[in-house]
Please model this.
Amino acid sequence: MTALSSFRPAYAQDRIEAGPLAVLQQALQGVTQTLKPDQHVIMEASERRTIIGVVSGMLRSFRVTPDGRRHITRFVDAGGVIGLGKLAAFRASAEAVTRSAIVTFSAKALEAAMATDPAVREAVLDALTKELIQRDRIQFRLGRLWSDERVADFLLERAGARGRTGAVVALEMSRADIADHLGVTFETVSRAISRFQRAGMIAMTDAHHFTILHHGALTVLAEGDGGHAIQHAHPCEAAS
Amino acid sequence: MTALSSFRPAYAQDRIEAGPLAVLQQALQGVTQTLKPDQHVIMEASERRTIIGVVSGMLRSFRVTPDGRRHITRFVDAGGVIGLGKLAAFRASAEAVTRSAIVTFSAKALEAAMATDPAVREAVLDALTKELIQRDRIQFRLGRLWSDERVADFLLERAGARGRTGAVVALEMSRADIADHLGVTFETVSRAISRFQRAGMIAMTDAHHFTILHHGALTVLAEGDGGHAIQHAHPCEAAS
DNA sequence: CGGGACGTTGACGTTAATCAACTACCGTGG
DNA sequence: CCACGGTAGTTGATTAACGTCAACGTCCCG
Model:
């Protein structure tokens, strides 16, 4: 499959172009598979025989308490990998958020490749580092930000580099998903988004697409400044 | 220094016996150093020239918001390592909690050792995996547990394997430190601990030492079961 | 066109933050 | 050795934030 990759037509979206997952796809035999929305892929505490890479779409990784509270550990976008590290078992379940394509690699094969191929080692270290950085951000906002600030930081994280450009950003997950990731209720998420709109900080084209109008104000809020009250955006400060 | 290690007297506590940090100390030149309580070691966003291992004592890794809220990312016990991964800069500050001994390695030297020494690679992967597992637990309790449950889970995490034995566990950090780690106020931590005592789940010998009397009840609470009300411990169920 | 899932908004209740008083402890210096 | 002051911890009263409950609107798919 690797040898044939150059013959594949460009529209066959079963490969990632760059980043750690691309390296893994280059070096290892992977099995690709598509998932429907909400389709289950990993069961928490199940034996980790495979590593999973997201080729397109988005997964959510989550755990549930005995009494039914769900925490979404992270949303895994295209290019992301689940199951790296020296683990015997998965520590969270995973489901597709949107229609997604994933590739699975044998955990043993990855281990073997890491012993011999420096590029694979680099890729794994890269992916682990990225995950740790993302977790750092998530942990901080859960630990010391109020609900509005959490939502603001989440929107900025989702927007990424596009945040400053006024580009339309997709929020593919539901309000409940966002809530279970941010440690609040979906009503609280909904209210925060409404307030941001009224304050002129963002604009929603529909419930699942937004643009950032006032990047500076949103950032100040997300970083945890001043008594967490939303000020109305001043038009001329936009895109600071 | 490595060559001389066998001549060192046993009471010289500048080495860790086992685990990832022990491997790093074996393979790399490290500079040891002692820290007084509250002494600063790492500044957030500073260039990462060194990796830091905790030989004895405990550090806290933390970030502070512009308006002064502090979040303690994690407490780093003896054997723990700070600064692993492909990072240009530290993502958090660090200070000693108690009088501590640390060892610092050059980041470049570590990188070189990882290229040539499989044992070092294993050790780094090990340490990163441990950190991710710890972060998973921390994130979950910040994301979906109430304050009492957070404190219960924290006490269990601190107790570790000793939790089931009724051994005395030291809580070397202050209530404020615990609070800034759990995303609550120090009053809330204090109240939770008092409630656990009144419920017969733990016993405090003094403000910084406790034993777990009813491991089962504390675990049920920490895992997020039933409406998060504290029931009084039933004596015969102890140590379940 | 109808039903169900999702999202928004409002009213109300609960949790935990805030404000405040008080106590215990520890190190320092008289 | 005790007096003193500062820090840390506990506990209570009050308030603010957010969860819960409920009603309603909207969109999508059958």
Summary: Residues 1-12, 233-240 of chain A have pLDDT under 50 and may be disordered. The radius of gyration of chain A is 19 Å. The interface with chain B takes residues 63, 65-67, 69-71, 73, 85-87, 91-92, 114-115, 118, 121, 124-126, 128-129, 131-133, 135-136, 138-140, 142-145, 180-183, 220, 223-227 of chain A (CB under 8 Å).
